[in-house]
Amino acid sequence: MKNANKKETSSSENSQTLKIDFYESGIGDTTIVTFPSGGIAIVDAHPSQHDHRPDIRKIAEGRTIHFVCLTHPHADHGADLIPLLEEHPAVGEFWSTLHDVPSLLYGIQEMRNFPSPVKEFASQLNHVWANFFLDLLGAVAKRKIPRHLLRSDQRKKTIDGVDIHCIAPDESIQNSYFDSYRQSLKDSNRKFPDPNSLSAVLVLRFGESVVLLGADALRKNWDSAVINYRGRNLPNAHVLKVPHHGAKNTFNFGHNAQTYLDLCLPNKQSKAVLFAGDSKHPAVDVYSKVCEYSELYCLSNGTRRQVGDSNPLRIGILGAQAVRTVPTCNPAVSFELDRNGNVNVLSGRNCEACPLAELHGTTS
Amino acid sequence: MTTVTDFPLSGEPATSGHGLLTDAAPQSGTVVFNSGSTTLPDLDDTQQSVKLGTARKGDRNILRSHSTRRTKRRLRGFLIELQNPESKNSQARVAFVEDGEMILYDLPAEQLVRAEITEPNQPFQMDEVEIEEEDGAIVFGYRFKALAKPSEAYMETLQIDEERKQKRDLIFREFANSQD
């Protein structure tokens, strides 16, 4: 492994457990995987506006980063990967689903705008995205960090006895995204495809223990991910990162439809983790389903009472609300998994024990 | 003469099929509706007198009264995204621009979609309209108007700084070949 620093300082060194830390991350996600011998992987990272999460550099300090994974090209999943990719001395690989970077690179400089007095503001928002993308991939390019393309037909990788499977996106979805993206660049009337469809769904298997990291995968991703999961004969998951902040467009409510919950242990034997630091998330019906099925731990939950003025512009339309800070349910949720399928909760409380959930009546 | 058949019944409680008021609504002493109508006639910033259609439940005969309406304020912004556009509860994330600042809001998408505001970055204006009826009742409504049609979109090339231009060129070189 390139640049690998062999010194490990983690307390979990040689613990023969797999540790997963989910940190409250504002509107985004941060997941840290600590392998049995102490090396780590970062799957998405975004800062917390509450400062609950230690600086990402502190978390990774003195530890080998086996890989940094951007599950899909959205800043709420990758903003805090940049300092690691720029500065950390031991980043083994950069994982992503971006197989046509030149097209994306061309596209980020081209935005669809409209003649109006507010067009400069629309440009500003697009600049944020362009800068994120350039800074992130610029660091990978500058340091020549080895890249690994994620796709469901790739073989599993094994790190420290932990098998890592990618069960989404399928090649067809990936190709369709980039085809559509290129078409959109040529035709200003054509909509850009949804980057969430590029979400890498990772499955970590350590003996009998399984962790399912759902990124922001959409319903169509899950249709094939369920098949891929079964095809790899993976046992049902003990831990789930609920996809796309609990959004409705990830969940198939159809009768007999298979969803990500069907890949998890039933009857609340599995633990689900929700990042929903935005007033739109989670969808209440998705939240209810996840609560019925699993033991849910929220880092934040947009259905709870929020902080700040809900309507600074005093708009009298039912449902109109300013985008605000969502209060924290858990600063961090951490699990330790052994080879036998035992899961130990190191930090965090579930919705049944959460006063915020009880207060606002959003438990199942 | 303008007919506004989907405007709420004058003087009826605000919950009669047009939704509850938010805490931002004007206070007591006024009769307030949250119609969000996009079928109001074009209004300018000056007070004008127009005919307002009113209807009683189950009675499609339009009663007309002389009303005065004003645009109380006009907000401008642009659409960031529509979420779950296929759903009847679709929401829109928008940015309003006030005093040179962007304020992000989530709104029910229905009114924007009806006004054909459907494209990311598409600009719009939202008028808060006050209608005073003959009997002194005051009705508030919101009217959305696209400031540009979807077909008016153009491709804008973002100006990136020198440092990022160098990064861009480096990425092009490093990622020129497929990763497969």
Quick overview:
By secondary structure, chain A is of the alpha/beta class. Chain A has helices at 56-60, 75-78, 82-87, 101-108, 119-142, 171-186, 219-231, 284-293, 355-360; strands at 18-23, 31-34, 40-43, 65-69, 91-96, 110-113, 147-149, 157-159, 162-168, 201-206, 209-213, 239-241, 271-276, 295-301, 321-322, 332-337, 343-347.
Could you describe the 3D structure shown?
The complex is a heterodimer of chains A (364) and B (180). Chain A is an alpha/beta fold and 364 residues long. Chain A is 25% helix and 23% strand. Chain A has one domain: Ribonuclease Z/Hydroxyacylglutathione hydrolase-like (Metallo-beta-lactamase, Chain A), CATH 3.60.15. Chain A has 9 helices and 17 strands. In chain A, a hairpin with a 7-residue loop joins β1 (18-23) and β2. Chain A is globular and about 60 Å long. Residues 1-13 and 359-364 of chain A have low confidence and may be disordered. Chain B is mainly beta and 180 residues long. Chain B is built from 2 helices and 7 strands; from the N terminus they run ββββαβββα. Chain B has helices at residues 110-114, 162-174, and strands at residues 48-56, 59-83, 91-98, 101-108, 123-132, 138-146, 154-157. In chain B, strands 1, 2, 3, 4, 5 and 6 form a 6-stranded antiparallel beta sheet that branches. Chain B is elongated and about 70 Å long. Chains A and B meet through α4, β6, α5, β7 and β15 of A and β2, β3, β4, β5 and β7 of B. β15 of chain A pairs antiparallel with β4 of chain B, so a sheet runs across the interface.
